Amino acid sequence: MPDKVLIREAARGDRDAFAALAAPRLDQLFATATLILRDRGRAEDAVQEALVRAWRDLRSVRDPQRLDAWLRRLLVNACRDESRRGRRHDSNIRLLPDHDRPTSDSSGDLADRDAIGRGLRMLSADHRAVIVHQYYLGLSLREIADALDIPVGTAKSRLHHARLALRAAIGPDAQRSEGHIA
Amino acid sequence: MNTQDRFDEQLTERLRADAPREAPSRLLYAAMDRIANTPQRATGWLGRPVVRLLAAAAVLLLAVAAGTQFAGLIGPPTGNEPSASSTLVPSESAVESAAVTPSASSATPQPTESPTAGDGLPLRVVNLGGGPTYPTHLLPWLTLMADGTLIWQPIPPETETTSLVTRTLTTEGLADLRERIFETGLLDASAAYELEPQPGAEPPGHGVGVYTFTAGDGAEQVVVTSVQWLGDDEESTYYQPAPEREQLDELTQQLRDPESMLGADAWAGPAEPYEGADYQLVLIPYRDAARYDTADASEIPWPFDGPLDEFGVEAGDPRPPTTRCGVISRDAASQIVDALVALSFGEIGMDRATAGSLDWAEGNGTVDLFMLPRMPDGFPECEDQF
Prior knowledge:
The complex is a heterodimer of chains A (182) and B (386). With 182 residues, chain A is mainly alpha-helical. Chain A has helices spanning 3-11, 15-22, 26-37, 40-56, 67-90, 108-122, 125-136, 141-148, 152-169, 171-176. Chain A starts with a helix and ends in a 6-residue tail after the last helix. In chain B, a hairpin with a 7-residue loop joins strand 10 and strand 11 (323-329). The longest helix of chain B is centred in the N-terminal third of the chain and has 21 residues, at 49-69. At the A-B interface, helix 2, helix 3, helix 4, helix 5 and helix 6 of A face helix 1, helix 2 and helix 3 of B.
């Protein structure tokens, strides 16, 4: 059944229609939330919250073609909320030196990707969100701006700063493997 | 390839490697379960971009407020630990604040008729947790009274709306149902069945629903809490065997479809929408907050005088925005429902939980409204809204 019909039926209170709308989008929503929050449990909560908000406000969707953009925006907001809620717990977590990390890894690419992974963890959720939308979802700046509910110029600026922050976060690794990612 | 391109490529590779391929199957079920208790909002004002932004902010505020007031009840999962610590036992502070005697201000709701005495409560089932909890989520999944009155929320896919249904059992039907409920012995004494991870297991952290079974009333009352069954796969992979939780979960699912469970001759009359003898009204007023640009609170026929943030009693965390709670008559609730319907709010009715967000010009802000029919035994009380 086309999205247009499902949206109309779901907006009339048909939960089966809403489930049919949500199901094919679930994997990508969950993957996006997991990458932003770096925690599958909290990602589940964020996706769940985004879907509940989508259900509640579905009647505000006028253009079915905008559904995915709207869902992405709800998800980013839910991730923000989840990130804020989790912050008081995170404050008890301290990053420890990674003594186990091999220092003479012959595979520079693998080490660089590990460094990127660690760097991503150190970014704010807002910075991760813009990175994920650009590099994982492959969205245009306009689409990113839409998802993050910010002007295009702000999206561009935020992406720039997120990249700088990521580079700063992986600084020692970047220096170690200079030539690959520096 | 320059270093910039290489960095971009590695970043993409890393994100793809980290991204889960599939969402857990329980995710959609859990969301749909919450949606069953979530009314849809009316069209119109939400369609405007600026207002959507404000609405999102309001939802955040509400979530923060609810999160504060329900601390311990819906605490977000910490690390990889499941939220098994969810409990329905109100904190001392919550009980104290809710027990505050209403002020003598004219905002105090008029007392309403007490529930019918002597009905008694064999069983009430409430499900909370698994995400942000709103005041309307206290609407029980099932209430069984000693006179054979059964009130339940049907299993979501089989209903058009999240409404309550009531039907009266025959004497034999009541006896049959009681036997099915209590034959396991799990509701004979108060207990808390929580998640117990297997040694060394690292379960996924996510919110879980928690059932509260309240059996009997008065000094003999039994309260059993049990974390919702998470599905055979997750349970067997990460958690200790929990036959009690599994049994209670199965019982709850059966109780949400009692007409299939009991058969036609168990009933004394037809099923019909449930309307409360009175209603719990919960207001969360936000003074000096950005408006929703929706209908104003002054368009609602409130059954009290005075400012909204002095209505009833304070429930939960006393820090602003405070939650105000009181009980209003069925007639007063009906007038509020009529007004909301006239203002194009959707999913509104006397037989269900009602939620709405309004502007509040008098307070230069907004107010979130929640209203739910109370059960024949008077549940929920304001002290339950901690």
